[in-house]
Amino acid sequence: xxxxxxxxxxxxxxxxxxxxxxxxxxxxxxxxxxxxxFSKQPGNPQTTVIQATFMNLSSNTYTDFVFQAAVPKFLxxxxxxxxxxxxxxxxxxxxxxxxxxxxxxHGKKSLVMRMRIAYKTNGKDTLEEGQINNFPRDL
Length: 139
Hints:
Blueprint: H1 2-8, H2 10-15, E1 24-28, E2 32-39, E3 47-56, E4 62-70, E5 75-79, E6 94-103, E7 113-121, E8 124-132
Antiparallel strand pairs: 1-2, 2-3, 3-6, 4-7, 5-6, 7-8
């Protein structure tokens, strides 16, 4: 009998990776696409780690690239530094940035975020803003 139980021991450890959440296109304009990929730490369901990936859809390189985000008070947001401040033209590279959101109302309120992206194109300042409401359920 002990051998049978020992044989099942590895199974729960593979489940500790938690559920898999679909990636989303969080924001898209004619010149920029923002994709979110999600993960959670085992045993910490209220905290979500988001990898944001920014893709330049235009034919011009973006410089001085900055992503800003704001969340309601029931959420705590931590932004890691972005991988670069230069976003190559025409999808020939991307910028990534990790975000960590802790939801004090997990299971009651869904994630929501306002975002602002600032960058320069040929020396001209550009600002794009939006609200992200399409987070997967149960984050």
